[in-house]
Amino acid sequence: MGTSRMFHIFVILGSAFMILLIIIYWDDVGASHLYLHTPVSPGPKIPHPPPQRQRPQSSRTPSFLSDIDAFVNQFLEPGTGEPTDPVPAEASNQSEKAEERYVPRREWKIHLTPVAPELRERQEQRRRLLQEMCANDSLVFPGKNRSFDDIPNKELDHLIVDDRHGIIYCYVPKVACSNWKRIMIVLSESLLQEGVPQRDPLAIPRDLVHNSSMHFTFNKFWKRYGKFAKHLMKVKLKKYTKFLFVRDPFVRLISAYRNKFELRNEDFYRRFAQVMLRRYANQPSPPASVDEAFAVGIHPSFSHFIQYLLDPLTEKEMPFNEHWRQVYRLCHPCQIDYDFIGHLETAEEDGEHLLRQLRVDNVVEFPTSNRNLTASSWEADWFSTVPVEARRELYKLYEPDFRLFGYDRPDSILNE
Ligand SMILES: *[C@@H]1O[C@H](CO)[C@@H](O)[C@H](O)[C@H]1NC(C)=O
Ligand SMILES: *[C@@H]1O[C@H](CO)[C@@H](O)[C@H](O)[C@H]1NC(C)=O
Ligand SMILES: *[C@@H]1O[C@H](CO)[C@@H](O)[C@H](O)[C@H]1NC(C)=O
Ligand SMILES: *[C@@H]1O[C@H](CO)[C@@H](O)[C@H](O)[C@H]1NC(C)=O
Ligand SMILES: *[C@@H]1O[C@H](CO)[C@@H](O)[C@H](O)[C@H]1NC(C)=O
Q1: Which residues have CB under 8 Å from 163's CB, separation 6+?
Q2: Biased composition, Pro residues: where in the chain (predicted)?
Q3: Which residue among 185, 206, 211, 216 is best mutated to probe the pocket of ligand 4, counting the most ligand atoms within 8 A of its Cβ?
């Protein structure tokens, strides 16, 4: 009789305990649910998220909540410094506090159809090719063998970081970079319009898009994090989704020439066109301003531009301007394991795929471009004024970009 009574007491105590557990569990589900949906507090302009902004009731069942934290953290790196906050005084201490500082993200868009297999396969192929080429000793270029630690700080100025969504974008000028920079501004909420983050990429004024104060780039880490900079970069490179867009290297050069020398551009006229005219066009004293030059119909030809690129003097003075600097020098594709490689030739499909992969297609749309893009079919026309010997030298100069990113050697213009 005694044992059966004991048994009853056990059952009752057990049930009571279970009910208690359920109540606690339920409460925490509610709390963490609320927590995950806490609206993003005033955006990146806030220098330090207030310290009291912590996990509600995290003391009660720490393991359950920390599981959620771990889950969230997979997608969202702690916000170690938003793009526009002032340099904190105790900058080097920021990295330790990193875990305390993240901001919840918005809901993802639910997709009923999976990403098309051919798009996924395309990315697999591009990434595989890049890895193979980086490992292949038949392709040699300066800086290929160095480690990430050996890359000088100033060469990291094209990597834009968005801590809110865990994204790193390496921008390549002349490859839809304005549009992707706009998207990065929207995502990082670094532009406030009457106190509200600007949500429409196309509403961002052009001069702001390229203003470096709008973008948090890797080369700014040193100022903010001091000796922790390289370490933090490596952590972010490991956890964040990294992408870049490339295009046919010769077509990119044509596009750069059209944009900077066929259109009136005072800055480029003074810095580069005058040099080309003096060196290669028998113009010892070229017109002083771009307006004067256009008035008398003087501007460097495409052939002069190519001569300028091939001239050993050019790089002795300073590195190539970013508009024609090789992608391998801008983005370090053998040191950084890019998750997504877009091609301008397939920009729309790639753009849509990428926004989906980044899980931000609910936040921004890729702006469709209706501009007259430089087409590869014009290549033969443009290069017809360039001597074949110079074309081959130019290919050597840009060969790594061709091979790393899967652009065929343009035999038709190299074998004449
Ligand atoms: C953290 O910052 C304080 C001053 O704010 C400084 O004394 C301390 O050395 C820093 N800690 C580290 C690890 O840099
Ligand atoms: C390296 O690249 C060349 C030319 O693309 C190719 O023929 C060769 O098989 C590659 N080597 C390796 C080890 O992949
Ligand atoms: C890089 O390393 C390979 C062997 O691992 C070597 O053959 C090649 O010459 C090196 N390239 C440079 C630029 O140092
Ligand atoms: C960039 O923006 C900052 C402030 O937003 C401004 O002070 C600066 O003049 C701008 N630079 C250029 C080149 O427009
Ligand atoms: C694009 O521009 C070229 C000349 O630069 C012109 O021949 C061509 O017709 C234009 N195409 C469109 C669609 O505007």
Answers
A1: 77, 78, 79, 80, 81, 82, 83, 188, 216, 236
A2: 43-53
A3: 211
